[in-house]
Predict the 3D structure of the following.
Amino acid sequence: MSTEIRTRFAPSPTGFLHIGGVRTALYNYLFAEKHKGKFILRIEDTDRSRSESRYSRAIMEGLRWLGLDWSEGPFYQSERGQIYEKAIRKLSEEGKAYRCFCSPKELAARGREAESRGEPPGYDGRCRELSSSESGRLEKEGRGYAWRIRTPESGAISFDDIIKGNITVDAATIQDFVLVKSDGGPAYNFACAADDSDMRITHVIRGDDHISNTPKQLLIYRALGENPPRYAHLPQVHGTDGKRLSKRTGAASLDEFREEGYLPGALRNFLALLGWSTSDAQQIFAPDELKEKFDLSGVGRSPGVFDMEKLRWINGKYIRETSPAELARLAAPWLLRAGILKSPEDIPERIIEALALEKEKFSTLSEVPEKIGFLLRDDVAYDPKAVSKRLEKDGVIDILTDIQNLLRETEDFSRENLEDIFRSYVEKKQLGAGKVFHPVRVAVSGQMKGPGLFELLEFIGRDKSVERIGYALKEYVK
RNA sequence: GGCGGCAUCGUCUAGCCUGGCCUAGGACACAGCCCUCUCAAGGCUGCGACACGGGUUCAAAUCCCGUUGCCGCUACCA
């Protein structure tokens, strides 16, 4: 019988969800899904002064938006005190942890001293061999204390990382680090290992900035007498400048991507590819295809740079595959803000039609208003460049006049029929198609770019088209 | 400083474990062409990389050693 795969995402609520963290969450989710296991959410809020519940809420909302639904949790470390107390009691009884009465101030001072002497800073082991009577006396004096682990003085600690391979560290380089802080709360490594153990996590998938923590956590597992999970350390994600991803290099928090108008599916697709790939280098994945194909063996070892251009490309691909009606629903917040849409509940058919005409031109949802605005406004904004290039030319006056007359008489204003009319006119007059199409396009829309001419005319309608050509003739054509 | 990690086109990467099929493949971006009424989309072509130096071998991107560079940890932060 194979054991259930259990992964977890363990953010600390000290800020908004960073895009690197999102990728970590995604890999954990995908790995668990692929193996029909569980994906657990654990909020690491042991830093009482920096943790805020609004961040926890934002993190969860972000994960839900991305579709990374967790199967257990959220568990808050701040509510799991009994777990850590029980563990520390066991360790203390077995002599694997001890109380340290040195205050942070003293520690810092001794650390600086050691450094000035050219020695490595860090804990000097002063309280390690305190007798129980001394220890009791110090406690009665009312001195605060922290719990430290008794670390081995020699030997090798090694583990086989799924991504990085075998990693070995000399135990002597690991100090007696703090397990429980003097405020009674667990320190990171302790809370993490105690929880991973308690939650029966089978695979710890996290950023490789945690590699140096792993031996410490292994030591805790060993002291607890538990079997450690498998570890998979993901390479970091950097910005274009090679540093940690930040606002300066584009965007850093999930919310920013959401506000820019990236689709959750596109972001998942992009993030999955940032560090992972299939051997055939597939770029675009259908819904649910990621969780089938994802595999930790396809994760690379080297850090990656967040490529905004590629994200835009993927997002555009996803937008092109979205139906106009769905797209209208998704773009509603931006349309609303631009004043193009009045109510998100009631999306006019006309907006959906406009979207259908311009769909392949958006990279993000935030670009939608500016790109369909010219189709929907009543007054045409004539682009000066378009006017000078396509209207202020010889022969335009005759062409527009002819076309205006033809359109005025046209009952069937469908794109197909319009095309027939234009084609036969062009043929009859022995003109190049562009010679006719371009001025009409500008006269009717004010722009040089846009949908195909016949779709454009059909969309605008006969009366408006005729009227606009008349206006252009009067105002712009010489 | 110590310890650990990483190193293929500008970017994401395939290949590395199990040397030869690699005159190093794909994707984004960029350039050109095609399609075409414009802009896109799409198609095609091009540009473009094994960090450096030694070794092992008939043969190295792939194995070994060293150098360099970048990153992380070295907290009673997580």
